[in-house]
Amino acid sequence: MPEQWIVDRLATGIASIELELHVQSVIEIETGTAVGAESFIRWRDAVHGFVPAMSWMPYAEATGALVDHALHLLPRWTSLAAMGVVSFNVSGQLLLDERLTTALFEVPPGTAAGLALEVPYLQFSVADAVRIAPEWPWTEPDDLDTMLEALRSHGYSIWLDDYDGALEDDHCLSLDAIDVVKFDRSLLASGASALAEINTRVRSHGKRTLMEGIETPAHEDAARAAGVQLAQGFLYGAPTPSVANHNASAQ
């Protein structure tokens, strides 16, 4: 349960919460070119400063408030489509919420083509569903697979987030809807041969691969040597407030 002031603020609705989108570049390793970005929801409170995501997002999702916040930020996210492919983190639970999916399908396909939906790898793990419930509302994988296919047909890219290389529940790698698999930063410590093997396995399914958590040139060298195509991390810059926040304030 989050702190009481967080519960109280979430209960009052979007108007009392200062939400921002921050973005962090995604880099093509071989060329060093920025090809897109990941966007993050940040809550900047006037009294408490930035509120850590894990201290409020799980509760907001469980109570339905996170859908309201996602809908509130949707116009800002879609305005970033010209940057390349800009991703937005959503759980499978949110992707089966009728209010959100209706709004996503109302985005013109040409705009959706510049956007990606990041779904956590954990969402596909039935074993973990038992371990972490009820804190994380769960989604049946078959329902989620169908929705991902529909969203990709509309134009969105689908990115699988925080993939840790485990073989369990790897059926998600065979889903045509998934375009990019983001490797969890823990894989940087797995060793060069292990990372290369995981990368080869994922790419054999026709997916592009992205290494998260690149903080040093050595990290980048390891990802490059393993054949990973894309990278993201503090080596290329920290997440920064999106220009879309300023545009929203001016309206």
Question: Which structural class best describes the helix and strand composition?
Answer: alpha/beta
**Strand fraction:** 15-25%
Average predicted local confidence, pLDDT? 90
The low-pLDDT segments are: none
Characterize the biggest β-sheet: 8 strands, mixed, barrel
Overall strand count: 10
User: Helix share of residues?
Assistant: 25-40%
Could you spell the SSE succession in H and E letters? HEEEHHEHHHEHHEEHEHEEH
Count of alpha and pi helical runs: 11
CA-CA gap between termini? 35 Å
Oligomer: single chain
How would you portray this structure in words?
This protein has 251 residues and is an alpha/beta fold. Helices cover 39% and strands 22% of the residues. It is built from eleven helices and ten strands. The protein has helices at 4-12, 57-63, 65-78, 92-95, 98-106, 109-112, 126-132, 141-154, 192-203, 217-226, 243-250, and strands spanning 19-28, 33-45, 49-51, 85-89, 115-120, 157-163, 180-183, 208-211, 230-231, 240-241. The chain has an eight-stranded mixed β-barrel. Helix 9 packs across helix 10. The chain is globular and about 50 Å long. The relative contact order is 0.14. The model has no long low-confidence stretch (mean pLDDT 90).
